[in-house]
Amino acid sequence: MSRCLNKATLIGYLGADPEIRTISSGARVAQFSVGTTRRWEGRDGTPREKTQWHRVLVWDTLPATFGLVEKYLRKGDRVYVEGEIDYRSYETDPGDTRWTTEIKASEVLGAGNAAERDGERPRSTGRQPQAPAQEQVPALPL
């Protein structure tokens, strides 16, 4: 059987607000980083943790997902991301080749915002007001 699968599933927190940009072809892409933290107890009994950061891209070819990222997600929000791992190279100005690893998202869901997590009321960010509660992004039961 020759089946292949390239799938990544992340549940973590946004490290910064998503960056939305338009590329030369006119397509729009949202880029953000998701931090996932693993916690364990060391051999000596001390608590340990390690956070890894994952670069996530969402293209406007997924209008519902792209819209959710653009309108609702902010730094500190908990998110569920599903997609495929993509490795690509690019050239720097001096002509060096660099490699990067990204998750090309096929699905992104909000799983609660930072204010809910910290038990605070949302702060004003100078952005458009959020949609009424019935239009809020549904939280995942995690």
Which helices and strands appear, and what pairs or packs with what?
Blueprint: E1 8-14, E2 19-22, E3 28-41, E4 47-59, H1 63-71, E5 78-91, E6 97-110, H2 114-118
Parallel strand pairs: 4-6
Antiparallel strand pairs: 1-3, 1-5, 2-3, 3-4, 5-6
Notes on the structure:
This protein has helices at residues 63-71, 114-118, and strands at residues 8-14, 19-22, 28-41, 47-59, 78-91, 97-110. The chain is mainly beta and 142 residues long. Strands 1-3-4-6-5 form a five-stranded mixed β-barrel. A hairpin with a 5-residue loop joins β5 (78-91) and β6. 17% of the residues are buried.
Quick take:
The chain has 142 residues and is mainly beta. The protein is 10% helix and 46% strand. It has a single domain (8-38, 49-123), classed as Beta Barrel (OB fold (Dihydrolipoamide Acetyltransferase, E2P)), CATH 2.40.50.140.
Order of strands in the sheet with the most strands? 1-3-4-6-5
CATH class: Mainly Beta
Helix share, percent: under 10%
Q: Which homologous superfamily in CATH is the superfamily?
A: Nucleic acid-binding proteins
Estimated structural class: mainly beta
CATH architecture assignment name: Beta Barrel
CATH topology: OB fold (Dihydrolipoamide Acetyltransferase, E2P)
Low-pLDDT stretches are 120-142
Broad shape: globular
For the sheet with most strands, the description reads:
5 strands, mixed, barrel
Order of helices and strands: EEEEHEEH
Number of strands: 6
